[in-house]
Design brief:
Elements (H helix, E strand, L loop, with lengths): L8 E8 L3 E8 L4 E2 L6 E2 L2 E14 L2 E13 L9 E3 L15 H14 L2 H9 L6 H14 L6 E10 L3 E8 L4 E6 L4 H9 L6 E4 L5 H8 L4 E4 L1 H10 L2
Helix pairs in contact: 1-2, 1-3, 4-5
Amino acid sequence: MKTLLPAGLVAGTVAAGVGLAGISARSAAVTAACPCCGRRSRHVHSHCVRQLADLPAHGLEVRVLAAVRRFRRCAPRCPQAIFPERLRPGAARPWGRRTTRMQGLVRQRALAFGGRPAQAPGRRLLLRVSKDTFLRSLAADGAGNMAEPRVIGMDDWAWRKGQRYGTLICDLERHRAIDLLPDREPATAAAWLGGHPGIGIVARDRNGGHSGAVPRALPDAVRVADRWHLLDCAGSSP
């Protein structure tokens, strides 16, 4: 029965009706972490039920009825007296109305067809989602998938060529830009790097102030010369 549900959820009873199947579930975790102080608690205060739309099965819409516990705080000075447990990200997002895998299917159809073109065929596949929800899934998932970068590239970027320059920062694992800094000062770059301690590799050109910002903010990070500047220097050398 556990294979019916996303990771982190344990299935209970299954009830099938006309066009709909309901699966009761609970979290596999014994404790939950307080979002305020981070300490884990096992003292249950009360329960509530989250209803999550899951992938259709055997011609039926599927609803997961997840029993969510509310816990009492462990730290006496924590301002959060009672807090709800959060399901694992692989199961569902906070305040989400669909499981993560169902949300992924909605987003894939939105990427392939758009909003209105995805709505009618989606209903035939038992995806009861409006055209606006299809489009919102693109923005929501784009923000939610922004994981902490591990390998980045830094280079100058011209706001106005010859007059004003900033710093472009790219996630080299996901191949996309993640931030634009207003200038190329070492202090600005060091402040940004200091807020992302998970970065392990920084690719940059060998000129400019970035050479001093990286060891100051991330002394353990590996610094490499990026490929474009190496090829450019090699091509211009006699």
